[in-house]
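Q: Structure tokens for this one, please.
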Amino acid sequence: MVAAIPRGRVMTYGQIAALLGSPRASRQVGQVAHWGSLDLPWQRVVHKDGSLARGYTTGGYEAHKRDLEVEGVKVDHKFRVVDLEQLLWWPDE
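A: Here is the predicted structure, written as tokens:
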């Protein structure tokens, strides 16, 4: 599911958990993001309020922000959040 998130869009940990059939497993999705394959675009996954991951594997908030901005995602620098209303992506049914 993470591999399918288009450049410039995001999904939340909880959204991914729910779509995979375990709506209360957002922490587990976060653990996979932290310890799983770096070949997946984990920069496109954020918290339910649009905030960035402090435990982002390659350098915390600043690296998460940098990797999103490379894809054209605007990050509020003061609050370290993205605009979910504009950027949230849902896979096709």
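A few notes: The chain has one domain: 2-83. The radius of gyration is 12 Å.
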